[in-house]
C-alpha cells in the first residue's frame, strides 16, 4: 500500500466524469488500498478515486476513522433520496475553504463492495452527506459548486 497525491481544485481531472468499474483487477484492488491509506494519512472521512487522479467510480468512506473500518463503494447509484439537511463541508481537494451545502437527510444507494458483491447502503445524516459529497466527485462536482454559504469552520471533516 502507498499513499497517493490528492489533486487540488484547479486540476482539470477533478472536473471529469469517472467511468464505472467492470471487474476487480489487481490494479483496482491496489487503487482501493491506496485510497484507504491516503484517506487516513490526510485525516479525511472519505475519498473518491478522481481525487487521486483515477477516473473510476470508486469511493472510500470512514466517518469514524479511529475505528479503521473503511467502507468501499463502487459504481454507486442513488435509488432514494429524501428529506433535507444543511451540512458543513470541507474537502481534501479544496484546502482552506469550508461551507454549508443542502443535501438529502436520507439516501439509499445501491453499489458493489470491494469483492464486487451487490450492496445496499441506507444512510442518514453525516454518512448521507459524505456519500453524496463523494458521488459528486465522480461526476466532476465539488462542494464549492453547490455551497450556499461560506462558514470558515476549520474543524469540519474533509472528504
Ligand atoms: Ni471532497
Short description:
It contains 3 helices and 8 strands, in the order αβββββββααβ. The chain is an alpha+beta fold and about 160 residues long. The radius of gyration is 14 Å and the shape is globular.
Low-pLDDT ranges: none
Bound heterogens, unique: nickel (II) ion
User: Could you tell me the radius of gyration in angstroms?
Assistant: 14 Å
Average pLDDT rating: 96
- What is the strand content? 25-35%
The end-to-end span amounts to 20 Å
Helix content: 10-25%
The tally of beta strands, per DSSP, is 8
Q: Order of SSEs, N→C?
A: HEEEEEEEHHE
Number of helical segments? 3
Biggest sheet overview: 5 strands, antiparallel
Task: Tell me, briefly, the overall form.
Answer: globular
Amino acid at each position: 500500500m502507498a499513499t497517493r497525491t490528492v489533486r487540488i481544485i484547479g486540476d482539470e481531472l477533478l472536473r471529469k466524469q469517472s467511468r464505472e468499474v467492470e471487474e476487480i483487477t489487481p490494479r483496482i484492488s491496489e487503487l482501493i488500498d491506496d485510497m484507504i491509506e491516503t484517506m487516513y494519512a490526510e485525516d479525511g472521512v472519505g475519498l473518491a478515486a478522481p481525487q487521486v487522479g483515477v477516473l473510476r467510480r470508486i469511493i472510500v468512506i470512514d466517518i469514524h476513522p479511529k475505528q479503521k473500518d473503511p467502507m468501499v463503494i463502487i459504481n454507486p447509484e442513488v435509488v432514494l433520496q429524501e428529506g433535507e439537511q444543511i451540512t458543513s463541508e470541507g474537502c481534501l481537494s479544496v484546502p482552506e475553504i469550508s461551507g454549508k451545502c443542502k443535501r438529502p437527510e436520507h439516501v439509499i444507494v445501491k453499489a458493489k463492495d470491494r469483492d464486487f458483491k451487490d450492496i445496499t447502503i441506507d444512510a442518514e445524516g453525516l454518512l448521507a452527506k459524505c456519500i453524496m459529497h463523494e458521488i459528486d466527485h465522480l461526476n466532476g462536482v465539488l462542494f464549492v459548486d453547490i455551497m450556499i454559504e461560506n462558514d470558515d469552520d476549520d474543524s469540519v471533516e474533509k472528504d
